[in-house]
Amino acid sequence: MTKTSELLNASPSGRLVATISGQQAYVPNPLPRQLALSPSTVYVLDQASRAVATLAGIGETLQNPHLLIRPFLRREAVLSSRIEGTQTSISDLFLYEASERPPGPGDAREVANYIHALEHGLHMLDTLPICLRLLNEMHAQLLQGVRGEDRRPGELRTSQNWIGSRGTPIEEARFVPPPPGLVLELLSDWERFVNEDIEMPPLVQCALMHYQFEAIHPYDDGNGRIGRVLIILYLCARRVLTTPLLYLSAYFDRNRDAYYDQLFNVSARGDWEAWLRYFLDGVTEQASDAAARSRRMRVLHEQYRDLLQQRRESANVLRLLDELFVNPFITAPRAHRLLGVTREAARRILGRLTQAGILTYSFGSWPRVFVARELLEAIERPTAAEQ
What is the pTM of this model? Predict the structure, then answer.
């Protein structure tokens, strides 16, 4: 028995069972419907709840929510995909979308798929609860046409998987999730838990939900990304947030070793409180970051509108300003399509925004690419915690 198996064998949170190959796989118990929290954890929960309430208030007062939702979603897509090894930057993604080229293979396509999966999940919440159908449809979107597309997109795994460094054999795995024959049963309890109205704070329920999904690891590939998508879906489904502005991938990426250690410690020792404190610290940190970033972008938007109105710019110039807050990169063909004006009019509008100091010429001979650099910095700039 390996050292990992020895730790998991004494777990109060689950049990070990034999796989077809004779290795030991971990099967988590059904999630607890009650947890007694220590005063220190209650304090951390209160801090997180306050930070989320502040962010929720900002989201509810937005006149044009898409001006913040789409940049935040794209930032999350880049950071969540980075955990899985992709190298696309936020600027790369914005430029990829601004070019309006058909999606090709590579990291940018993988990040774009993450966006499509998350947007699809949020749309499905209008008619469905969080359920297996929703998971499978998001998973199919995530792996379409990219690495992993040969690993049963949209279908639960039928073979044993394991977690470890690339190329690590199952005998040396850090963690071996349940055998495939138990996945559907485990997900059924997980689905009931996610949708039950129990006497548990939503942020606590969310943390437990995320742990259990990662412990089950129900797909051949893409489990980490789907697990992170589920956090914002759950918070929106429970109306903790009405606007999807809170994402934890930046926090998980900065504290990656602690993330894996705390998940494992729940499995090995039943240490729910340490995992909760880690998760809730992340909620507080990222909600505060999202609130500050939202305010910064709103102030910038108001400053730009005031400037353009003082210059007596046209309604189309103001319309294109709003589009820059969706994507700070712009070309004349894209402006032509977005505004429904002639190509010559689109070029004039870009010229007006350049004269106002909002846009600068970035690069390219045709089509020329312009960027709102101050806005891009507001989206990309790391927080003090990220530096």
Answer: 0.92
